User: What shape does this take?
Amino acid sequence: MKNNYDVIFALNKNEGKKFLADIEGKEPAFLCVIATTETAKIPGISAAGKNPEFTDYTPPADVELLLYGKCRCISGVPVTPEGIPTPALITMTALKMGDIPAFIVVGGAKIKPDSPIIDLGGRPGKDVRSGNSVEEPEEIFKKAELIGRNFAKISDYLIIGESVPGGTTTALAVMLATGINAEGKVSSSMQNNPRNLKTSIVNEAFKKTGVKFGDLKDDPLKAVSLFGDPMMPAFAGLVSGAAEKIKVLMAGGTQMGAILSILKTEKPETLNNIAIGTTRWIIEDENSDIKGIVNQFGEIPILAANLNFNGSLYQGLKAYEKGVVKEGVGAGGASIGAMLKSKGIINAQILLKEIEKNYKKLITGRL
Amino acid sequence: MKNNYDVIFALNKNEGKKFLADIEGKEPAFLCVIATTETAKIPGISAAGKNPEFTDYTPPADVELLLYGKCRCISGVPVTPEGIPTPALITMTALKMGDIPAFIVVGGAKIKPDSPIIDLGGRPGKDVRSGNSVEEPEEIFKKAELIGRNFAKISDYLIIGESVPGGTTTALAVMLATGINAEGKVSSSMQNNPRNLKTSIVNEAFKKTGVKFGDLKDDPLKAVSLFGDPMMPAFAGLVSGAAEKIKVLMAGGTQMGAILSILKTEKPETLNNIAIGTTRWIIEDENSDIKGIVNQFGEIPILAANLNFNGSLYQGLKAYEKGVVKEGVGAGGASIGAMLKSKGIINAQILLKEIEKNYKKLITGRL
Assistant: This one.
């Protein structure tokens, strides 16, 4: 690695340095996987939308923002109930500054974005408490794998992000079902992580299906069909197809543990060709433990974009420093991608200035 | 250009040589645009299917063959009423030999392939005689343009093919409406080109809408909405977005004239960054005139894969030499792409041998 970057090596530092050296100056493609799950509508579970019903619009609005610089299916941008803007604002800025092409992959979503999409034929996810969450995850996985394999032929490496409100609860369920010690470790878009609520939801789903911790460790896609969301098989399939040949930066927070659970069984060799790319807000979060999750899968590096919004002019951005939102839509990974592609010309400070400009445009409606 | 290729310079030889020199040894991506139009079901108009009703299945089956080496939505492969196999067999072989990644773009289709697709939100096309053929072509064009622009960031160049039964009739109508002298010049998948039938269908559509030759020369997307098919705005949009930055090989026959009509108005500068890539069977066809069409758009090169199936062991392939099928699913362009990527290691003879192997596997069902 020739240059310095605003990237924190949060876990497996040597592997992380090697990963960055491999992608430095290279041309990535960014894929964003979106999905919806009815789980997001359980009161108190997700802040990815003004209110629970609104969460269906968050993934399509997020990716419209990435592609067009503004949302189409809603006015303004997705916000938490307190009005804190979507991390897609960070991702959009990073992709634009880095001139990184973005493609949208739909795992299964109730509302489709008003944009071109890569459709894998998946259906929206159901409430995890039904014990019947995702239809035909194997099909979604295989179709995504083909897409990943084809992108690997033309991209130096891939950055894959996701947007699925309610996704940490389904991730918790899938990790526990596949024997990953994730209790109390998953993150939240809220400042006060509703851990007890998540656990009781997962317990209800486990009770309904008779599944106990670790029962599905050899069949993670079965765990997805029972307790997951449609982002998971799509995301895991993309990694599986691409990481046969090229590096993949898995751009997300604690949900990445569910993806690793799938890969560990479906394509273990890909675990040598990946890194987790996230934000400082995730690795410093005291109410979740991404390192404790990723540690269970071997020596996978965690890289965190060292973004700092403390000095921001805007309360909506400063709130990120108080532990609201933290990550999503591949914000951390896209930031790392832009910094590495530009060989450090783009850094955390320059990113913040541009994020602020874009935020101002979006809140004043002056596009 | 350093090597020799089985490519015929059919028009604008100097530009053609320059184009080949530019793409020699480079890594393309192949995009196949599919669509359906009710026009294909007019008796006698298309041989792209066992019978008219079957034409809805031809585009999805064609692209399944490209991606999976076999069809999924039908058994066997698409054939003409006489049992002559789809040109997708050529494309599939060329892409596989050249290790060229393929992506499917749906302009608007009644039957979706059982595969990942890039969906532009378009609807299937209606009968051209309705004078109301394609819904919202501008939207399809813009979405395709975004996809083309993003692929241009990661591919050295693009090869774009199409599969739309009935497409030469809609192409004739769009070309005439936009002032291109195409009468008697469009090709056919049949040995006996039903020219009079095509002309009378177009006349009926023109009468219904009150449009005359050249009336829509400044509004080709309006011509598409009245008389086109959903492949057209998707294909033209992809070229428009990609050819801003990289070369595009437009892999098709006389239908490419309708795409050129759109580009000439919507993005004329892209006409300097493209070539038509087709087959010898198209340029030697006595019942159509691709050169006479392309000539009307300036110095755009026509390159033709010099495939020759006379020596084939199989009647189904030999029939191509009698003027059946001729082109489709980007067969000519994909062959050129495989030859150029391999710097001539793949040639027409090697391609034929491999096409025969794949044909044998498919007709005996031994996959």
User: Anything to note?
Assistant: DSSP finds 14 helices and eight strands in chain A. The CA atoms of residues 185 and 288 of chain A lie 4 Å apart.
